[in-house]
Design goal:
Radius of gyration: 19 Å
Distance between the termini: 46 Å
CATH topology of the largest domain: Jelly Rolls
Helix content: 40-55%
CATH superfamily of the largest domain: Regulatory protein AraC
Strand order of the largest sheet: 1-8-3-6-10-9
Number of strands: 10
Largest sheet: 6 strands, antiparallel
Strand content: 15-25%
Shape: globular
Number of domains: 2
Number of helices: 9
Amino acid sequence: MRNNPHVFHIRFMFGRGVNHRQNPHHVDRPGGTDIWILEYTASGRGRIRTRGEDWHATPGDIIIFRPEVPQDYGMDPETGDWDHLWVCFAPRPAWLELLHWPERTPGILRLTLPRELQGRVQTRLEEGIDLMRGPLKRREDLAMNLLEGVLLWCDTANPANAQARLDPRIRQALAFICDNYDRRITLAELATCAGLSPSRFSHLFREQTGQTPWQCLEQQRLARAGELLLMSGKTIAEIARQTGFPNPFYFSRVFARRHQRSPRAFRRQQPGR
């Protein structure tokens, strides 16, 4: 029986784990998570277990778990310490092309950064932690830009970056979603846009992006709705209509499921409002 993924109620966050024998901390999520997880090893050694095999993350290694991929990892008990910086995130469509990294095992991506890049990447991840803990109103946008910088620098060290680009048909479908999220979109429309049959399109989209077309569409709608809640005085009904939701009640339910608070509470609880 397939395990359900762990649901993260926070959709974007930077963090750091400093593990040692007194604080070993072990992650065991048989169903994975519903979002992407990035782990960068700053020092020490992590242990990852996949299909009964143990392998290690050492300084300069950066690992990404795709959604719904089993996660079993923690400090390597033989070394007794692991300092790692992590990010949980839902990638922007433009980032997917940057995430075609070599797979260590299916669904687990891995790069080993050259020494000259390790400092750049670690600094940006540490800055992201500071930003997300700070008072700035647009801290999430600034931190997202830092993560994009991390992915761009990693792309320069990706041995597959010249061969394994996002399929242009899926890129076209993603652009269509970004341009038309404010209206009803059908699977047939997306498949036609990509020049594929609906079944082939659905399979290829998930293979390339790690999510279904509807998860991607909902992600775009909620991201835009969040911006409108913070940056405009529009009503909930207006925002629902402008972001493609059929009615404000359904929008509020989906928004609350993702953010663990209603759109009105989300708007009230933001700094500066």
